[in-house]
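User: hey, got a sec? need DUF1811 family protein folded
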Amino acid sequence: MERRYSTYTVEELRAEVAVLKEKLQKAEQWGNVSEYEILQRKMQMAAAYLVNPADFEKGERYELAGDPGQTFEITYINGVFAWGHRINLLGQKFETEEAVPLSILGDKQS
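Assistant: Yep! Here you go:
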């Protein structure tokens, strides 16, 4: 049975991210798109436990890693997830509220 990332130590999380990054590069080299997507999500989840939720503020907008031009406005934070709405280049807020791992949020937007 696989352990939950929430039970890992910081050192174990860093090691897991490193292993996943290596597997991710191999999947990319082999052109295995589905494996690449799965590994990327796993790496984002493991990395989310290395981020301090206190570094993020509700009501603020942040860059979305890997999604240029879109930002994310936080409604609330629950554990290692930020809940809120994506905002496109035109400043239009998506209706659907979603949860994203804190690890994919970049710099705060003004």
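Quick note: The longest helix spans residues 10-30. Let me know if you need anything else on DUF1811 family protein.
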